[in-house]
Amino acid sequence: MDFARSPEVEALIGRVSAFMDEHVLPLEERLMTEDFTALEPALAEARAACRAAGLASAPLPRELGGMGLSLLEFAHMSEQLGRSPLGHYVFNVQAPDIGNMELLHQFGTPAQHERWLAPLVRGEIRSCFSMTEPELAGSNPVRMATTAVRDGDDYVIDGHKWFTSSADGAAFAVVMAVTNPEAASPYARASQIIVPMDTPGVRIVRNVPVMGHAGSGWLSHAEMTYEGVRVPRENLLGGEGAGFALAQERLGPGRIHHCMRWIGIAERALDLTCARAIARELAPGRTLADQQVFQHALAESRAAIDASRLMVLEAAWRIDRLGQKAARESISTIKFFVAGMLQQVLDRGIQAHGALGMTDDTLLSFWYRHERAARIYDGPDEVHKGVVARQILARHGHSGARR
Amino acid sequence: MDFARSPEVEALIGRVSAFMDEHVLPLEERLMTEDFTALEPALAEARAACRAAGLASAPLPRELGGMGLSLLEFAHMSEQLGRSPLGHYVFNVQAPDIGNMELLHQFGTPAQHERWLAPLVRGEIRSCFSMTEPELAGSNPVRMATTAVRDGDDYVIDGHKWFTSSADGAAFAVVMAVTNPEAASPYARASQIIVPMDTPGVRIVRNVPVMGHAGSGWLSHAEMTYEGVRVPRENLLGGEGAGFALAQERLGPGRIHHCMRWIGIAERALDLTCARAIARELAPGRTLADQQVFQHALAESRAAIDASRLMVLEAAWRIDRLGQKAARESISTIKFFVAGMLQQVLDRGIQAHGALGMTDDTLLSFWYRHERAARIYDGPDEVHKGVVARQILARHGHSGARR
Amino acid sequence: MDFARSPEVEALIGRVSAFMDEHVLPLEERLMTEDFTALEPALAEARAACRAAGLASAPLPRELGGMGLSLLEFAHMSEQLGRSPLGHYVFNVQAPDIGNMELLHQFGTPAQHERWLAPLVRGEIRSCFSMTEPELAGSNPVRMATTAVRDGDDYVIDGHKWFTSSADGAAFAVVMAVTNPEAASPYARASQIIVPMDTPGVRIVRNVPVMGHAGSGWLSHAEMTYEGVRVPRENLLGGEGAGFALAQERLGPGRIHHCMRWIGIAERALDLTCARAIARELAPGRTLADQQVFQHALAESRAAIDASRLMVLEAAWRIDRLGQKAARESISTIKFFVAGMLQQVLDRGIQAHGALGMTDDTLLSFWYRHERAARIYDGPDEVHKGVVARQILARHGHSGARR
Amino acid sequence: MDFARSPEVEALIGRVSAFMDEHVLPLEERLMTEDFTALEPALAEARAACRAAGLASAPLPRELGGMGLSLLEFAHMSEQLGRSPLGHYVFNVQAPDIGNMELLHQFGTPAQHERWLAPLVRGEIRSCFSMTEPELAGSNPVRMATTAVRDGDDYVIDGHKWFTSSADGAAFAVVMAVTNPEAASPYARASQIIVPMDTPGVRIVRNVPVMGHAGSGWLSHAEMTYEGVRVPRENLLGGEGAGFALAQERLGPGRIHHCMRWIGIAERALDLTCARAIARELAPGRTLADQQVFQHALAESRAAIDASRLMVLEAAWRIDRLGQKAARESISTIKFFVAGMLQQVLDRGIQAHGALGMTDDTLLSFWYRHERAARIYDGPDEVHKGVVARQILARHGHSGARR
After folding, report:
1. Do C296 and A291 touch (CB under 8 A)?
2. Domain final residue pick, B92, B121, B150
3. Among A178, C344, C364, D80, which residue's beta carbon has the most beta carbons within 10 A?
4. For residue C231, what is the enclosing H or E element?
5. Are residues C268 and C379 in the same domain?
6. What is the pLDDT of residues D76-112, one digit of tens each?
7. What pLDDT sits at residue B399?
8. Contacts of A300 by beta carbon, 8 Å cutoff, 6+ apart
9. What residue ranges in D233-378 does DSSP mark as E strands?
């Protein structure tokens, strides 16, 4: 066992960190007070600088314009990017695009690569992933009411989705829809289909107001309807009925990305908290940083962050070496563990900031609101704990009565 | 010991609850999507109806236009009002006005009663309370930089405040300022002074953006400067140097009001959560309400709410019978206990709602954001736990080395 | 609502507390180092003194030799007794005897009263309650393998029990056994039967070693076998098939007794902890009591104990006024809430004592071990949370898919 | 970063695990019911077999009779041994002997090696470490009342100690005593001195009863007095005034050993818990293992154990590579994190076992009692959290007002 980071990773972290300080952090204040679309010109500049520096789209192969990083290497990078709410976006590795890039790269046809993947990797377009439905629990993905019916050489899609993040301004959506309702396995009924957003019948009903804001552009979550949306068969991604299998492929690395991003958030929150505590005088010569209760919470946060990082890196390493299936328990473990850590670190940060922590004068209140979703999206805590438990029990010979 | 509610309280709760259903709850949806000031006409109507029904300004004496309720009686009422974010406002018992009314009623001169108290009780004007300062920890109120210097028959006030809630649109502020910097006790240095908002030198710098919104009108928290603000001596409230003593008088019942309001929120959140869980099908014939983990969290919430209510009612009863000083430990205990309960119940509610819980389609996300402050304002958890501990230890003979 | 204790209750608490100080607390040190049976002579003296003082068997009617206390009154008393592990025993209100006395009093025949109840109330004999079976989860009491078969005018009992507390030295057992295996409702299959311990076929296999000790006498938990145990029909308690109904009757007040006893333990633990913290110097002039982390934990313990007491007293008041059925949710709520509080208060007490907390030089380690069972016996947390949740959900119209 | 275990470590784990199954686990049942000294003959056989298999005294160099393992390698082994309360003892790596061996090895003179170290490594004698004093908080080790006064070529030691674990039957004690009371630094006042247990004036007052048992032999914790105990100067270990420096050296690896041992306990507890849950039928066809609440707790335990292991292994790796000083924060982090994990896993295990969990029919109740001390010895949680916090804050430029 060797816990040392390679010299390459160390160098990468240095470069990324310097770029973040120069190009990304200065934009944060505007994010807190302006609409996302108002920032887009400044962000576009930063994205161009990032591409020029050779730091964009990192997990994609070099030949496509990425950096060809392994999942473990990118995990380290993702932590650095996570220190700012704008990091992943500037480096063109933001969800949901990065997931779509990985999907297209692995399972797309050459034509799909050329038409959708290439401009995504170059950062010229954005995309979205349209899976969750308002009427059915997202935690049970085999239940899906959206259908895609074969009609000649086309699919005709009808359905109602929401939390299609970043649909606002996207060039295309990857839509999950039932194509094979009669398949024996409920996991073999849905497919993923590429739907250009300008296809007739595609409608953004609204950007769902989330924690007080409807948001805009990349920072939004759309409610959408698909009514008689007709796309050609070649827009199918990876085979009919393969929708869930692909979604799983997409979600494994995606959870590593998220978890490392959350660790970056937590580290930044801890930095902000320490700085605040040291500066916040409670009585002459005595600061919040001297308070024992603050200190103990700080130590507990530190422990939880360190634990989280090691677990996520190990899961990434496991996926790199053994594949996603072998890492399934690890992935579910980190999903709920790191999300829980994040919520607690942010909460402690707000408490340490006092009234200031409630304001938009710090990043904490932004993350407090938006990252509450960490325990919900990509599988809520409840689902992941169940997955882990059933794997453990199966190793002990338990068959499982029912879910 | 008799845990039964009196027939009068039962009847009161019935009337209040019916009024809430008819006049208040229908306005909630607009609160989630519109600016507060846009709601004001509709709210004014509801407030008029409330006054007409004889339900307004309840803790104030009947001769002033209130209902003359004891603190225990009002506590029961406050829970009902708390079920909606608009309840207290419609019933004209909203912070900070209710605290100012109680202050003026107890300590104001006849002239102050006529000029400020009467229109407040009638709901014709609003007010604010200007204490917290951005540079100094609000948890240590003896540290205050704002000064009020005597100049002839006037005070001249200079200072910088924030979290002066509801300053936007208020007719006057009660300002805490140091008048007696040389007083031996740090608790005898500040005074409370009534400052009409249109006095020259009074400036609202901004409504501080809190959890993503600057807000407006009653639902806002101002950063303010006072520069050479001149008011006549008769605007002094309750004696020079009495500022802290009055603030303590104001905060005792205020914490009862808040705590019962939080219990109302928690009950409403629990209702929403149960309704959602029963409706949310996870698999055919199996809803979230059938999940054991959900059920156990529900039971824990129920226990914590029940515990909270009994403790708050007992504290109110204690204040009614023995006065605030005798209830100091109880008041500090409920402040942190109920605030903690509220945060947990809301958090569980969001988790049970899944993605919906993140949206402004439910009240939960509103409370999740705004009531995070419950553990901070009117003394953070840390301060109240210290108060309780020192009282316990003093009973065991401990003198206390230092704070 | 009136939270004041009546003058009668105040006077009672005073008398009980004085008796405890004089007669019970001096015996505690021996309990930590000697076998229970070695203490019995000294305990017998204390019990005689208690009876002479008119304080024994308090919940039983005066005409039987008790004090005729209501459940609410006895709850107050039970807290005082709980301050010592020997309190309930000396006052002849110890489990399982008090439960058996209440059962016999409510449901026994005159002959049973004379033969079994009278000497129990006088403290001349002890008894036990034989329900739990090692092979079947005690949390699901309808599953029971012990049978009592009618044979002429007798029942013949066969079965295997454990955690028959205090069987060692008891004069009789109340045995739960299936008499009506064919009854439609699983709740109507078992009966309670009085079995003299000297009946042939009754065997104490062992006192089960619990937390390191097999114990002896009243302080023990037997594994028992019943093989062809023949008792006359008149030993049936309260009707054939009524076993569960009676058990429920027995458990309601029993849980009030336990919960108030736990509150007494918690109060004593808090006293010990405060005394220790004040005395434990960490550095010159600085004691553990001055540590902020200690203080906050103390405040949290205080809040949890206060909450517990109010909830238990309210549940007792509810049973007194409305009967057990109406208090079912309250009883389940306090069972898990108070047991959880107790465990946490004891754990904090041990931590504050440091190495001393691990030793038998304090009562804390005794309670830490033995009261871990509080979250298990008389229904584990899991069962009671489920009960509470299903009651809440039923009020919201939920039918419940399955347990 | 490479999370793979080396083939050597894999092979070692295999051998150790097989030995445990064959020689150690069969002895456990007797441990639960018999005095430790009664087991000594059987344990002596197992220890001889272990030595014969070349698996004893593993962290010591091969030339002394150990295996020459690095700390990281031994950490892996320690987890395996921890699965049984007897593992470390049988492999002759039990505290306090292993710490004394490491001390003697690093700092002992050739004469001390020959007289004390060699027979310890060969498992022929036992030893103890006499530091903690009953009157002074062990959490502040610079406070020490025991003195060692130079008198000619001797030291004369006077003092009162307790929690001198395993003194009963030991051949010698390493005693911490103040030799240089005038030293400027409080950390330079004490020395470590080897004291044969048969020296006049050495007295075991009692084996302190801990959690219900005084214990015996290796499994005991003595209260001791040293009255005019005279030992020659050459019994000084590592230099006058070096006592604390040596204690720190001793405690670093010692905490790794403990933490990995606790992980072994937790893994075993989890295995027992899973087996029990699968076997424990709650209703026909439905076991405890199917309960969602059980499953979620299981997943949380799994996550906490996995996190613990990674953190401890990384700390061991850090010590191996960079030395103890560089690992100070890591060591303090794991000390409180892993001890907290252990307590929770054991508590959940007991709850899952129900009444059985309270009995000595499982190992859980043994560990529940004895490992409550994990959060206290070798520095309580409170001290380690303070260490971690101050290191973090120092990196942020905080000087620290006071402890």
Report:
1. no
2. B121
3. C364
4. strand C219-232
5. yes
6. 999 999 999 999 999 999 999 999 999 999 999 999 9
7. 83
8. D385
9. 236-237, 281-283, 286-287
Q: How many domains does chain A have?
A: 3
ipTM: 0.96
Question: In this structure, what CATH number is given to the domain that contains residue D218?
Answer: 2.40.110.10
Query: What count of CB pairs under 8 Å joins B to C?
Result: 165
Comparing alpha-carbon positions, the chain C residue that sits nearest to D294 is C382
Q: Are A302 and D388 in contact (CB < 8 Å)?
A: yes
Task: Check whether residue C156 and residue C106 sit in a common domain.
Answer: no
pLDDT reported for residue A136: 76
Angstrom distance (rounded) from CA A78 to CA B338 = 38
* CB < 8 Å to B389, chain C: 294-296, 298-299, 302
**Yes or no, beta carbons of A382 and B137 under 8 Å apart:** no
Residues 208-237 of B with CB under 8 A from A: 208-213
Q: For chain C, which ranges sit under pLDDT 70?
A: 138-141, 400-403
Element (H, E) at D96: none
Q: What is the CATH number of the domain that holds D11?
A: 1.10.540.10
**A231 and A249 in one domain?**
no
Residues of D whose CB is below 8 A from A310: 307, 310-311, 314
Domain end residue (candidates: B60, B87, B121): B121
D258 in the same domain as D384:
yes
Q: Which residues contact A158 (CB under 8 A, 6 or more apart)?
A: A146, A147, A149, A226, A227, A228, A229
Return the pLDDT at D46.
Answer: 98
Residue C367 sits in the same domain as residue C318: yes
Q: Which domain holds residue B33?
A: 7-121
Whether residues D296 and B293 touch (CB distance < 8 A) is answered with yes
Which residues, in sequence order, are bridge partners of residue A202? A226
C292 touches chain D (CB under 8 A): no
Query: Residue B355: which of A212, A283, A376 has the nearest Cβ?
Result: A376
Q: Per the domain annotation, does D400 fall within a domain?
A: no
- Say if residues C112 and C237 touch (Cβ distance below 8 Å): yes
Number of CB pairs < 8 Å for A and B?
125
Confidence bin at D399 (pLDDT 50/70/90): confident
Residue B2 is assigned to a structural domain of this protein: no
D401 interfacial to chain B (CB closer than 8 Å): no
A 10 A CB-CB count for C152 gives 9
Per-residue pLDDT, D138 = 65
Dihedral sign computed on CA atoms, order A93, A99, A105, A111: negative
Partners of A220 in the β-ladder: A215
E strand spans, D256-383: 281-283, 286-287
- Residue A141 is predicted with a pLDDT of 66
**Residue D300, pLDDT above cutoff 90:** yes
The C-alpha atoms of residue C16 and residue C226 are separated, in whole angstroms, by 40
pLDDT of residue B353: 96
- In chain B, which among 25-44 make CB contacts under 8 A with chain A? 32-33
Asked if residue D403 has pLDDT above 50, the reply is no
Same domain, D264 and D383: yes
pLDDT of amino acid C403: 44
Which token pair is A95? 């969800």
User: Which of 369-388 (A) contact D at CB < 8 A?
Assistant: 382, 384-388
Q: How many helices (H) and strands (E) does chain C have?
A: 14, 11
Between these two residues, A375 and B186, which has the higher pLDDT value? Answer: A375
If asked whether residues D29 and D114 sit together in one domain, one would say yes
Residue-wise pLDDT for A270-327, tens only, equals 999 999 999 999 988 899 999 999 999 999 999 999 999 999 999 999 999 999 889 9
CATH of the domain at C355: 1.20.140.10
| Closest chain C C-alpha to A140 CA, distance in angstroms | 18
Over pLDDT 90: what percentage of chain D? 92
C317 inside 8 A of chain D by CB = no
Residue A327 inside a domain? The answer is yes
- Token output for D119: 């027979």
| Residue range B231-256: mean pLDDT, rounded | 92
Instruction: Enter the tokens of residue A288.
Output: 């919040």
